[in-house]
Amino acid sequence: MNNKLIPLVIVLALGLVLASGALYRVTEIERAVLLRFGELVQEDIPPGLHFKIPFVDAVRKFDGRVLTVDSPPERYFTSGQKVLIVDSYAKFRVEDVGQYYRTTGGDETVARQRLAARINDGLRNQFSTRTQQEVVSGERDQLMNLLTNELNESMSEVLGVRVLDVRVRTINLPEDISEAVFNRMRAEREKEARETRSEGQEEAEKIRADADRQRVLIAAEAFRQSEIIRGEGDAQAASIYAEAYNQDREFYSFMRSLQAYRSTFANSGDLMLIGSDSEFFRYLKDAQGGN
Question: Rounded to 5 degrees, what are φ and ψ at 170?
């Protein structure tokens, strides 16, 4: 390489180094401040490409998106001195970049810790003025909105952040109290179950007794109808027999005698002792039935 070009290359290299150190970019999801010898000289740098003095100026960037602070579960007392275990979280965003840097030094962890402490104090104050029913269901949304507004006003001045929302994830009873409540609830449910089963058995007995009564009534009515029909049938049969007997009494007497003979002598081993002049043998001795 030509010795005359070496200085030029060195100058170009130094120029590139200086240029790379003098230019910086801020994206749309970032917030930034400019420091000069550690002193804040520009608080809110807009997105885009910017220039700084190398080795003199420093740029601190922060996340400009919505951030979340998760508070650990804490014990709070209600107005009735009931203990509740509350798990909460909050959504916030850096609003005043200069104040945020001056208060936290740009450390997001410090901002989260300070915000969590304020949320803890706010929830403790709000819970202490309300009953357990109110904080669990009755005024829960109202409580969260009120706490969000209060934190937003105070933390905007102190930390330079805007609190967007504060929410309670879960509200639980302490473990020892939860066990006692669970046992009481189980006893109440078992009592209700026993009462329901007793009512069901009583209703089943009523239905069963009514079914038995209806069965007896139906059977009695059926027997009555059958007896009526049987009596009417017997009456009709007797009427037919009587009519036939009146038409030809001798023939009727003959047929009845044949039926008697058939029934009597059906078994060859039977014996019958009777006089030969008995009326029973009238048609055996004379087909005309003469004596």
Answer: -145, 150
